[in-house]
Every structure is written in C-alpha cells, then in structure tokens.
Amino acid sequence: MKPKLVPDRLLAKSVEKPWRATYTLVGHTAAVVDAVTTLVDVLGHSLIAQFNLQCSLSKLRATARLAAYLHDWGKANDHFQMVVRHQRNPLKNPQLIRHEVVSILLAWEYRQWLQECPDSDFLTALAAAGGHHLKLGWNSKKQEPNDDLGEIREGSGSDRLYLYTEPKYFRGLLKYGVKALGLPPNLKLPKRPTEWQITDIKQKRLEVLDDEKGFLDWQHEPGFLDVVKSLIVAGDAVGSALPNTNQKIKDWIEKEVTFTLNEAEIQQVIDRRLAGNPIRPFQIDLGNTPTRVTLARAGCGTGKTLGAYNWAKRYALGKKLFFCYPTTGTSTEGFIDYVHNQVDSVLLHSRAAVDLAHITSTGDEDDLETKLESFKAWGAKVSVCTVDTVLGLLQCNRRPMYCFPAIAQAAFVFDEVHCYDDRLFGSLLRFLQVFKAPVLLMSASFLPWQLDAIKKAVGEPLEVIHGPQDLENLPRYQFQLLESPNWERVEQEFNKIYTLTNGDRTCGKVLWVCNQVGTAIAVYQEAKERGLNALLYHSRYRYQDRVEHHRALIDAFNKNEPVIAIATQVAEMSLDLSATLLVSQIADPPGLIQRLGRLNRRYIGKSLDAIFYPDPKVRFPYAQEDLQNAQSMIEKFTGEVSQADLATWLEQTSHQGNPDGETVLFSEYKNWQTYPAPCRKAGYTVTAILEEDVSIIESLPAKELPRYTIPLLLTKKVNNWKRHKKGYPIAPSNEWSYCEEIGAYNVKGGDEN
C-alpha cells in the first residue's frame, strides 16, 4: 500500500511556524545534536559531580548525542508528515501512535547498526529519545502511568503507518549519523521497514519491552539515564525554539550557560539590603558553615534571607543560584526585594509575567513561550522561583526540564521548608539523596522526624544553624482565646499609636485571617459597614486582580494610617507585613505560627495581642485533630510568647509525617518511563477560568491567559464543565460570578472554601 503523501523532503516542523531553527528533519536533528553536544561539553564535569554519576564523560557525551540523533526518527511517517503540511487535522484524526514511540520502534529495527555507535549506551539513548515529549509510559485516557510502550489511538482513520525509510527520504538522516556520530558506513539491517499495521506495532512494542535485552528487565545506571533524558528535553527545546538572536546554537549556549556568580555580585545584594547596618552573627555563621548541606532554623523576621545570600557568597561562587520559595507570592516578593536590578536574575514561576507586568513584559503559557521563558534561567546568575521549578525536575514537569542546564550547575536555597506537604517534602528528600550540590534549607522549625529524614537523605554530615536567640526570645505575642471575634477590640486598635524600637511611629494595623474565602468576605463586608479602612485578600481572584490586591495591602501597611486586612491562608506566607493586632480563626499549629509571623514582625518593644476564635464548622483544609492541637497550643501559653517558644512547642509534638518520595526522574524504581507527575498533594481547588471571560481571552495572546485564571472549589461538578483549549475547566456563569472587589463567588450561595 502506497501512502497518500509523497513528500519532496521530510519535515520536523511546519514551515509556517515561528521557529528560528531549521524545519527539515535532518536539519532539526543536527540542531538538537549540536545543542546537546554543547551542553555536555560545557557542563560535563558539573553533570558528573552534581549527580554523582559513575559513568565516564565520554560515555555520557556519546549516549546523549545518540539520543539526540534518534529523538525524531519517528517523524518519518505519513501521519506526521501530513500534519506538518496541514493535510491532516490531529485534533480530528490523531496520529495512530505518537512519533517519539515510532522513533523507539524504528531505532529498534536498526539496533544492530546503532549499537556500534562508539562509547554509547543504546538502551539509555533509546529511552531518552522516546521520552522527550514526556508522554512515555502514560495512559492519556485514564491519566495514569502504565507499562505500555505508547498507545494505539482511536479515531486516526487508518489501520497502518507508512514509513518513509526509502533511501530518497532516509538516506540523509543515515549519512548524518555516519558523519556526526561515527556510525559504521555500512548499514546493518535485515529488512527495511516501510509499513506497519496495528498488529505489527503491537508486536514490535512487545519486542522492545520483553526482549531479553529490552526495557522491562533493564537495570540502568543510577542517574545516568535521567541526566540524558533531561539533556534531550532541554536540547530539543533550544533546537526547536532558539531565542531571537543571530548567534549559532553552540555560541548562544556557551554564552548563556557559562554566566555564573562572583563574590562582588553577591556582596552587592548583601550591602544593598544591609543599608549600612552591621551583618548579624547568625548571618555570618551561615556564610561560614563547613558542610555542603546546611539547615537554618530561624523564625520570621530574623534575617534568614540575607543570611542565605551570605551563605551563597561561599557556596554559589562559580555557580548559578536557585532561591526557592513555597508560593508564587513569596517568590515574587523575594525577587523584587533582593536581586531585581542588582544582579543578572530572573523570576521563574507560571505567573511571573503577571506579577512583574509593571517592570517587564514576558509570557509563558504557550509551549513555545514556556521554552523561551525558561531559557532566561540558562543565562541568569540568580533564579528566584517557586520550589516546583526545581523539585518539579524529579517529577518530569516541563518548565524544570527546560531549565535543566541551569539546575545542573547550581547551588540551592529552599525557604519555608516546614510548609511543604508530604509529597513535596518527599521530593525534597529524594533531591537531597541525588543532588550533590550545595543546599541551604531554611525553616522556622524542623520537626524531629523531618530532621531525621533529612539527615538520612543527605547521608553525610550537615550543620544546623539556629537563628539569633536575642530576636527569637523577644516576647512578641499575648494570646487570647475567645468564642467569637471582638469587634470592639478591633476598632480600638484603629486609635492606637506605637513606637518601634528604631524610634519610628506607626498606627494600629490589624490582620484578620479566616479559614475560608466565604468567611473572609463576610468579615470584610462587616468591617466596611463599620466604617473601617478595610482591604480583602484571598486566592479566589483573577490572578491579575489578586496581584493588585496584594500590592494594595502591602502599600497600605507601609503607610502611617490605620488599616485592617482580611485574608485567608494566603497571608501565612505571601504577606511581608507587620501587624499590631492579629485576629485569626483556629487553624493547624504550623498555620497559626505562620500567621503569628505577621504580628509584631517589626518589634515595638513589647508583646501584642493575638486573638483566636474557633471555626464553627470542621471542614477542609483542617481535620479535627489539627484544630484540637492548635487549641492546646493556644491554651498552653498564658503569658507572653516568643518565636522560640512556638518553635520549641512544635518540635516537641508527636506529629509524624508520611513523606511521599515517589518520583519519575531519579527514581529508585522506574527506568524507561517519562511522564509528568504532580509535585504536591492534590488540593481542594482547581485552576479555572470563568465563562464570562472566555470571549475576552480568545482575543488575547496566549501569554495573557494566566491573568484570568482563578482557583475554584473542586467539586464533582467540575468534571462536567467544558474545557478551554489550554486545558482549564470553564466555570459556568450559572454557578460562578465575579466582582473585582470580593472576587469569584457562587451565585447559588452555599459552602465556599
């Protein structure tokens, strides 16, 4: 059977797409081989050291080059070639099988020849090539991993693939392998494959898996395959979407990747933040720690972040630095406060373009945009990001994979480690096992089980640096446990004037934290009715509006006028402010301690009131046990309370975590599969867009889409909502409406998180 399409040449990309790189199959293959080769040549020794690889550098180089050579072989089929020529709609008629799986099956046919590639490991190259689109070993229907080597897709309209392996099509690719990789000039091939029916594909998949030298019984070298996989994803990204530059791939990579920190640059960040004040002994100790992995146990407002940059002055020299925060809000604030306009740096998270709209213009939602945005980390000396940007590498998340060349030669700071859920903490433990990079872990407290788990994962001596005792022992808080909130006390706070220890004066500023968005809105509305200067801040805004509310709240607390901010759990980490009165519903102990970190942060010389009252309903996100433990903590402290008191109480509790250390990359169990997995435990919300915004979004560039996303309550109804083409569920107008002042709300009322 002859194919419908008789191409003049094999394409890797659509000619009309905005790729700066070449779009022919041979040209694109050469570009990716060039990119991967340059990455290994520039990073080789860093890769060996960072991941404790046992292979030689020559083997790593040859295997990565072979994987790059093979990664798109499977595009030499009629279904793919029709798609890139717009003669086949992949949404209506998907390709019978993904092209990267065809690459595996086709390379397996040529294995006798390919195995003679000098110094290379064929199976490692094959698995890396087949996983470069992060879909290998993944069931798209059930949205779960499996042991199948690709899916036979329904609706393709065909029962076979035609393979363009005749000499007039494939000779150029084979000749390139001989010239560039040193493959034998004489091709060893029993029979040239030209056509595969579904039964053929199924049989060949089984051969690759079940052959005695196939994937299922394969014991690969630890870390080696994962590094090659990461190199191929990063190399394919730059080979497909070279930034807007006239430089060649090799020149661009060498220029960007070799930008690393020097002492003068880090000192500039430190000096600017110190503003003439002396550096604290605690911060000096962090810079003098002798161990590769160090823990900084210090409370809010003690100067941990500045101490981290002093640590970096020793451990990030000649490297890149990744400063990892738990949320987008904290990472944005950390970027603006410390390194923006001070050192070559970049803010990396999914909504960075929105957060920094007033100082830069970027976008990152479309895959091409994500690649281009991630390339900024290649040249940046400091990347300030959410922790997902680094730990997501272990879960095959797309952005971290694109950032791999920077991650592979970096030192790392992880802030607010105590906030990690079991899955995120499990990934951190695996990271500490695998990465041999300098690491600083910072937290207000480390529970005994966490400390034991970290020590075991690191497997070598580490040091714990404690925060400044004079600051942590200051009597900052006075607890009050009430049945219901005391509005009279809140109104009194508006008439108070305080003198800070530095002599500055400030008026009363109230932070009120609720456990649910609906409760926060109700408190806000009552505050407005009472004539108070009130601001509302929670997560259920369009992201662009949330940024505005965040900035308005920070600005209000910096002014010398009374204000009350009503917020939800987003206040626990995202708000760098100092309140003079805290009102909070009872939450879990770590959450309450985080909320207290916003009270008397800029110390006024005495303890201030923290008023706690119960949530009338036991509901997500807290279990009954959490609330009981928190109430016990509040009742224990009847006098003045310091940050050290709270940390000691928390570290003496019997709580035991259950970290989930299952990862996809650098796994103790998986080998050939490559698919993305979540970094965090499933939450109670889903990121959606409102039906009323769909028409607006359609007329905007893809990079603007994050501005309109909103976290909404995850219910069974969400499964029935329509999906936007970017995958976001669309919240129907008869269920959810929106107001810029209070955010999204359920039009039918009812329980709202």
Beta-strand percentage range: 5-15%
Mean pLDDT: 88
Distance between the termini: 59 Å
What is the count of helical runs? 30
Cα-based radius of gyration, to the nearest Å = 28 Å
Label the overall shape. Answer: globular
Main sheet specs:
7 strands, parallel
- How many beta-strand elements? 25
Task: Assign a percent range to the helix content.
Answer: 40-55%
User: Strand order across the biggest sheet?
Assistant: 7-8-6-9-10-5-11
Q: From the helix content, strand content and strand pairing, which structural class follows?
A: alpha/beta
Verbal overview:
With 753 residues, this protein is of the alpha/beta class. The chain has 30 helices and 25 strands. It has a seven-stranded parallel β-sheet with strand order 7-8-6-9-10-5-11, sandwiched between helices. A seven-stranded mixed β-sheet has the order 16-17-15-18-19-12-20, with helices on both faces. Helix 1 (25-50) packs across helix 9, helix 2 (57-70) crosses helix 6 and helix 11 (263-274) packs antiparallel against helix 13 (304-315). The radius of gyration is 28 Å and the shape is globular. Mean pLDDT is 88; it is low at 350-366.
Write the layout of secondary structure elements.
Layout: H1 25-50, H2 57-70, H3 78-84, H4 99-109, H5 111-114, H6 122-130, E1 138-139, E2 144-145, E3 160-162, H7 167-181, E4 195-197, H8 198-210, H9 224-240, H10 249-257, H11 263-274, H12 281-288, E5 293-297, H13 304-315, E6 320-325, H14 328-339, E7 345-348, H15 352-355, H16 367-379, E8 382-386, H17 388-391, H18 398-402, H19 404-407, E9 410-414, H20 422-434, E10 439-443, H21 448-458, E11 463-466, H22 469-472, E12 477-481, H23 487-493, E13 497-499, E14 505-507, E15 509-513, H24 517-529, E16 534-537, H25 543-558, E17 563-567, H26 571-574, E18 581-585, H27 589-596, E19 608-613, H28 624-636, E20 640-641, H29 643-651, E21 685-690, H30 694-698, E22 710-713, E23 730-731, E24 736-739, E25 743-746
Parallel strand pairs: 5-10, 5-11, 6-8, 6-9, 7-8, 9-10, 12-19, 15-17, 15-18, 16-17, 18-19, 21-23
Antiparallel strand pairs: 1-2, 3-4, 12-20, 13-14, 21-22, 24-25
